[in-house]
Amino acid sequence: MKNKTTGTTAANAAAKVTTLDDLGHSPDALVQRKAELLALLAQTAPELMSDQQLNVAKLQELLGEDRLASDEHYELSWAGKTAARREIQKTSSHTLRPDTNNPAQAQHMLIEGENLEVLRVLQKSYYGKVKMIYIDPPYNTGNDSFVYPDNYSETLDEYQRRTGEKNEAGFLNKQNLWKKNSKESGQYHSAWLSMMYPRLYLARNLLRDDGVIFISIDDNEAANLKVLCDEIFGSENFLANIVWRRTVSGAVSGQGFSVSHDHIFCYSKSEKSTLGRLAVEDEDKYKNPDDDPRGPYKTQKLERTLEGARPTMTFEIATPVGPITKTWACSPQKFQELLSDNRIVFSSSGQPYYKQFLSEYGGRLPDTWWEKSQGNNQEGSKELSALLGRKNVFTNPKPTKLIKHALRIGCGLSDICLDFFAGSGTAANAVIELNHEDGGTRQCISVQMPEVLDEDSEAYKAGYRTIADITRARIDKVIAKLQAEHPDKTADLACAHFTLAPSNFKVWRGDANSAEALREQLQLFQSAEKQAIGTEDQPAQTAMLAELLLKHGLGALGVHAISKPTDMAGATVYSVLMPDNRLMLLCFDPYTKALKDELVQAKPAQVVMLNSCFVGPKADELLSNLQLELAGLEIGLTVI
User: Confidence band (pLDDT; 50, 70, 90) for 2?
Assistant: First the structure.
C-alpha cells in the first residue's frame, strides 16, 4: 500500500511517518524464523556472526564433522514436502471482517475461513501470544475430505470464483475444495502430511515461549504425526503421548481388535513451557481446626514403620502424655524445626503427626491415561444434541470434559487458547464453561472453514448449511444458556464473529515494472481504500478499523480497547488504547485544521489517517504541515 506523498517532501524525513507497506501482507513466517535463529546465534556464539551474516565455515568448525548431517540421515520425507515448505513462506493481504451484529466487547471469537489463510492473517497480532492450542484435525481414515489447493497468490474471492469453489450463495463448494483422500491414492499419507505441515508450523509461531499444543489423532497417522511434530517443535519438546479412551464399547478394526482409544500428542514451544498441576483428589480431607494461617492441611503419621531406617532416626519425643521413643520419619534436629514451625500436632494418645498443607502440595501431575473423568465420544454427542435440540448433527464431537482437562493442564486462568479445526466448537464450549466454573478470563479463538453440508445430512435438515453454522450455533447457545442461568455473572460474556475476507485496502503490485503500469498504480493509489466496501448494516469504517487493528498487532479482539467513536471538529475519531497504555487515534474523515488542533490537544502516541483524508489543491501541503507538527510533539503518523 503506497502513499502518493511519501518521499516527496522534506517534512517526511523529519516526521515519524509510516505507510502500510509493511502491514499490507502478513509476515513471512520463514523470515521471522530465520531472524530468531540469527539472534540466538548472535547471543550464544557471537564469533559466528559478522555484519549480521552467518559464517557457515566457522559454524562447521565449531560443531565438528561428527555433528554434521550426511547425505543420508534420519528425517521424515514425503512426496510434496518441498511444496508444503513453500506454503510457509506465502503471505496474505487478507483481513478478518467483523460480523454486523458483533457486540461492542467480546472475550471470544469465531473466525469463518480457510484455516491456513487465517493462520497467516493472525501472525501479526497473535505471534507469540497463545498459551495453548488444541486441534482435532482430520484423522485420514480414508473417508476424510480435507485436501484442498493452498494457493492464494490471487485474492481468495477471485480464486474461488474462477475455480468454481464458491456457489451462488457464496459458500465454498465441498466437492471442489475438499477432496476425499482415499487409501487407494498413491500419495495417501503424503497428502495428509502436506496439509498438516504448514499449519503446524504457523501455529507454532503463535505459541508463547511457555505455550503448549495438544493434537488429537488416531492410529492412522499417529506415527507420522509424532515424527512431523518432532521436526516442527523439536523432539526435545515432546511432552506426552496421551491415550484417551474415546469410547466404552470400541470399534471393530478388522484386525481382530476392538479399538477404543485415540492419541493426544502434547508438545511445548520451548523448554520454558509450564504445565498446570491438577486438583488434589482428596481435597475434602484437608481441614484447619486450629486456624493455621497457612490454610487447610491434613496430618501424616510421624512414626516410621519401614525397615532399614537409620539409627539416628530413633529417638525420644516429649508428648502431652509423656515421652515416646520410636523410629521417626525425620532426625531429632528436623523434628525440632517442625515443632518450632507449628507443624506438629499430637493425638489424644500422644502420637505426633506433621501437617501437610494443601497450599504447599501444589497439586498432582497429570498422567498420560485419560478415561472416565475425561468423558468419551458418546458423552460428547449427548452434550451437543442437548444444546442444539437435535441428534446426529455432528459426528463424534469431543466431550467438553476432555478439553477442560487439557485446559487445566496447559492454559492459565487469563490466557489465550486457539483451535483452528474447531468443528462443532467443543473447545470454545469448554473454555466458556470452565471460565464460569473457576472464575477464569481465558480467551478462545476458534477457526472453522465454511464447509457445505450434504443435503441429506441431519444437520442440513436442521437448517444448518455449513459446519461453521454449527460451530456458531453451539457457541451462541452455550452463552445464552449460561446467561439465562447466571445473569449476574455473565453480563459481559460474548463471542465476536469474523469472516476471512479480502483487504479493505488496495495492495501495491510488485510486478508493475513498466512506466505505464506504474502510472496506473500511482493513479489508483490516490486513495488506498477500496470503493463500495461498506453496507447499510456495516459502514466501511467498521471494516477498515478492524483490519487496521489487526495489522497493527492489536488483535481482532482489539475492540476491547476501543471507546465509542467521538466527534473531533466534525470528524469521527476512534480511540484505541494500545498494550503499553498509549493512545492511538484513527480517523477516516476529511482532514481540517480544526481537526489537527484537537488531535494535537489529545496528545496520542499514534495517529492513523487515510491518504484520501487530505483533499483539495493543497492536499500535499496539509499533510506536510501535519507531519511537521506531529513530529515536533513526538507523535507517530501512519498514512494509508
Answer: very low
501-522: string of b/e by CB count within 10 Å (b at 16+)? Answer: bbbbbbbbeeeeeeeeeeeeee
In 3-state terms, what secondary structure has residue 559?
helix
Domain map (residue ranges) of the chain: 11-24+505-639, 94-278+365-501, 290-360
3-state helix, strand, coil in the chain (%, to 5): 35, 20, 40
Which strands, in side-by-side order, build the sheet including 566-568?
Answer: 17-18, 636-639, 606-609, 583-587, 571-577, 566-568
Q: Indicate the SS3 state at residue 47.
A: helix
What is the structure's pLDDT at 130? 96
The answer to whether the beta carbons of residues 410 and 390 sit under 8 Å apart is no
Reported as a single tens digit per residue, the pLDDT across 238-272 is: 999 999 999 887 776 667 788 899 999 999 999 99
Is-above-0.85 flag for pTM? no
Band (pLDDT 50/70/90 cuts) for residue 173 is very low
Residues 309 and 286: their CA atoms lie apart, in Å, by 29
Q: Can you tell me whether residue 276 is helix, strand or coil?
A: coil
* Residues 376, 245 contacting (CB under 8 angstroms): yes
The burial class, CB within 10 Å (0-12 / 13-18 / 19+), for 278 is middle
- Looking at residue 117, its amino acid is E
Q: Contact, 119 vs 152, CB < 8 A?
A: no
* Secondary structure (DSSP) of 31-88: HHHHHHHHHHHHHH-GGGEETTEE-HHHHHHHH-GGGS--SS------TTHHHHHHHH
User: Grid coordinates representing 252?
Assistant: 471393530
Where helices occur in 151-288 by DSSP H, the ranges are 156-162, 174-177, 188-206, 222-233
Dihedral (C-alpha) 304, 307, 309, 314: value to the nearest 10 degrees? 60
Q: List beta partners, residue 244.
A: 262, 370
Of the candidates 307, 131, 308, the residue with the CA atom closest to the CA atom of residue 207: 131
d(CA 380, CA 398): 5
**Do 233 and 268 meet the contact criterion of CB atoms below 8 Å apart?**
yes
Q: How many CB atoms lie within 10 A of CB 15?
A: 22
Task: Find the mean pLDDT for residues 166-174.
Answer: 49
Is 265 in contact with 235 (CB distance < 8 Å)?
Answer: no
How confident is the model over 386-438, as pLDDT tens digits? 999 999 999 999 999 999 999 999 999 999 999 999 999 999 999 999 999 99
Q: Considering only residues 349 and 59, tell me which one the structure prediction assigns the higher pLDDT.
A: 349
Yes or no: is domain 94-278+365-501 CATH 3.30.2290.10?
Answer: no
Beta strands in 486-622 (DSSP E): 495-501, 566-568, 571-577, 583-587, 606-609
Give the tens place of pLDDT for each residue, 341-377: 999 999 999 999 999 888 777 678 899 999 988 999 9
Enclosing H/E stretch for 92: none
Q: How many CB atoms lie within 10 A of CB 210?
A: 17
Residue type, 79: A
DSSP, collapsed to helix, strand or coil, labels residue 207 as strand
Query: Residue 245 and residue 471: Cα distance in Å, rounded?
Result: 24
| CA distances from residue 177 to 59, 114, 429 in whole angstroms, order as listed | 45, 10, 28
